[in-house]
Design brief:
With 448 residues, this protein is α/β, with parallel strands linked by helices. It has helices at residues 4-19, 22-25, 29-36, 85-102, 122-136, 155-169, 192-208, 227-238, 263-274, 316-324, 340-353, 363-366, 369-383, 389-414, 425-443, and strands spanning 41-50, 56-67, 73-79, 108-113, 145-149, 219-222, 242-248, 251-254, 288-291, 304-306, 329-331, 359-361. It has a 7-stranded mixed beta sheet with strand order 9-8-7-6-10-11-12. The protein has a 5-stranded mixed beta sheet with strand order 1-2-4-3-5, sandwiched between helices. Belongs to the Glu/Leu/Phe/Val dehydrogenases family.
Length: 448
């Protein structure tokens, strides 16, 4: 069976490992790559539930438990009609190395179902969550596999699934992350992916400018309008930048004139998303809406681009358009937000234009803040403690700083940049994450 998304993710990793000196210095790591490319376990199950008309409905449920060398499997649950094994394998594969880059003890996994929450009543979604968790609960646990939310799975759905797990297993444990604050959730978790993305890019800007620049005064194009995009936008504004776009599955909202999006507008958009409404329902604001489009070719001159919607949302042509628009930094808030052609376009420009080029930050590093705070939530649950938002935010900042520096220094070591050239952060992230996982697997006898 063809698995295009998984093959794309694997090819992206393999191409950068082969272009580095990793296999020259450690030829035995080729075997580690072969082993790590196959999930330890794939669980597929049916989910039977009753709709509001009393009719029986059935969906496919999945959990890909990809790699547990560094800790319990960790990765989100996605409820969306496009969910299939290829998408979950790609997400789980990326998750292995993303989790490794956080420095926390977490393996990689991903799961979900081809259930579409849109058009369903709250009662139907709750019934589906209960039926889904009754089966998934047999395969997860605080020291085995700790899922979180992803597309279509908000804290509300996490709550329903946690309650089902607790009833089925007669255990209260940190088996899910993204929980409510009153019952084991961590402060800063909803904000973490968006905040972490901006913290990572801030380090990119600081390094590229020799410490002379920050987000202050930068025009920033963002795609998406969900959790990641909202909090990335709010943090950009807090740091002095101007957000000029957001988008949803139906089109892009562009604000190239004036102050851009304000926190007030972003909060109104967040309320629309909770009600599962489109950006076209935003009233009282004079933004330019481009039907059926992504923002990249419509935003005009920008300094930073942050894809925060879904996979493959920046094409090769859109990558060229962003370069022509003067963008100097692009980093993925979404998983595999850029196509392989886009990545190659950014990397070629980085090599050819040295210090004046665009600089690309890959999702497995740039959007690791979400799973990092999930790991911090696991730690708080295990210790029966709760940290303040300031404590969690400081830890998040430290993790993103270490992640950036790890990518940077690994790139310098294994893909020596030319004089004046920015190091390849995508290669640095891939080598650093893979090396850590491969070494742990070897120590545990997974390959030799």
């Amino acid at each position: 069976m063809a698995e295009p998304e998984f093959e794309q993710a694997r090819k992206e990793l393999v191409s950068t490992l082969e272009a580095s000196t990793l296999f020259q210095k450690n030829p035995e790591y080729k075997k580690a790559l072969e082993v790590a490319s196959i999930p330890e376990r794939v669980i597929q199950f049916r989910v039977v539930w009753e709709d509001d008309k009393g009719q029986c409905q059935v969906n496919k449920g999945y959990r890909v438990q990809f790699n547990s060398a560094l800790g319990p499997y960790k990765g989100g649950l996605r409820f969306h009609p496009t969910v299939n094994l290829s998408i979950l394998k790609f997400l789980g594969f990326e998750q292995i190395f993303k989790n490794a880059l956080t420095g926390l003890q977490m393996g990689g996994g991903k799961g979900g179902a081809d259930f579409d929450p849109k058009g369903k009543s709250d009662n139907e979604i709750r019934k589906f969550c209960v039926a889904f968790m009754k089966e998934l609960s047999k395969h997860i646990g605080a020291d085995t596999d700790v899922p979180a939310g992803d597309i279509g799975v908000s804290p509300r759905e996490i709550g329903w699934m946690f309650g089902t797990y607790r009833a089925e297993r007669n255990r209260w444990e940190g088996v899910l992350t993204g929980k409510g604050l009153a019952w084991g959730g961590s402060l800063i978790r909803p904000e973490a992916t968006g905040y972490g993305l901006v913290y990572y890019v801030d380090h990119m800007i600081h390094y590229a400018s020799g410490g002379q620049e920050s987000f202050k005064g930068k025009k920033v194009a963002i795609s998406g309008s969900g959790n990641v995009a909202q909090y990335a936008a709010l943090k950009v504004i807090e740091l002095g930048g101007t957000v000029v776009s957001l988008s949803d599955s139906k089109g892009a909202l562009i604000a190239t004139e004036g102050p851009g999006f304000t926190p007030e507008v972003i909060n109104k958009i967040a309320a629309l998303k909770v009600d599962r409404k489109a950006l076209t329902d935003l009233e009282g604001y004079d933004y330019h809406y481009v039907d059926g489009a992504r923002p990249w070719t419509h935003v005009g001159k920008v300094d930073v681009a942050l894809p925060c919607a879904t996979q493959n949302e920046v094409s090769g042509d859109e990558a060229k358009a962003l370069i022509d628009a003067g963008a100097k930094f692009i980093a993925e808030g979404s998983n595999m937000g850029c196509t392989q052609e886009a990545i190659e376009t950014f990397e070629a420009h980085r090599r050819e234009n040295r210090g004046t080029s665009i600089w690309y930050g890959p999702g497995k590093a740039a959007n690791a803040g979400g799973v990092a705070v999930s790991g911090l939530e696991m730690a708080q649950n295990s210790a029966r403690l709760r940290w303040t938002s300031e404590e969690v935010d400081e830890k998040l900042k430290g993790i993103m700083k270490s992640c950036f520096e790890n990518c940077l220094e690994t790139a310098k070591e294994y893909i020596t940049p030319a004089e004046g050239e920015f190091p390849s952060l995508v290669a640095g992230a891939n080598v650093a994450g893979f090396k850590k996982v491969a070494a742990a697997m070897k120590d545990q006898g997974d390959w030799w």
